[in-house]
Amino acid sequence: MVGVVAGAILALYVRRVKQQLALFVVALCLVIAEVGVRLHLDVVIVCLTAGLCLENFFGVRGHVLAKELEPATIPIFAVFFSLAGARLDLGVLRAML
Question: What was the pLDDT predicted at 49?
Fold first, then answer.
């Protein structure tokens, strides 16, 4: 249900405001992450549900969002892989070799 609401909010924003879309998507992702943690939901599943509803039920095409978010992909990837690397347990990796 949280994913459906998030998809509806994003669809409404895309249709009505159409400005600063990348900033709004990042802010919405942060809100989804916080709500997901507090409600003990898997954040990835919530975001996948939002994307599914956005594309299939609310009529917002994915290529519109992809085009708007393209300039923000490098910083997002840098943060993601930095956080993923920070959680890597090198002791386990050494034990495997």
Answer: 93
Query: What's the chain look like in SS3?
Result: CHHHHHHHHHHHHHHHCCCCHHHHHHHHHHHHHHHHHHCCCCHHHHHHHHHHHHHHCCCCCHHHHHHHHHHHHHHHHHHHHHHHHHCCCHHHHHHHC
Q: Which residues of 69-85 are buried (b: 16+ CB within 10 A; e: fewer)?
A: eeeeeeeeeeeeeeeee
Residue 42's CB is within 10 A of a number of other CB atoms, namely 9
Mean pLDDT in order along the chain per 10 residues (97 residues):
91 88 87 91 90 88 83 85 80 79
**pTM score > 0.90 for this model?**
no
Tell me the C-alpha distance between 36 and 40, whole Å.
Answer: 6
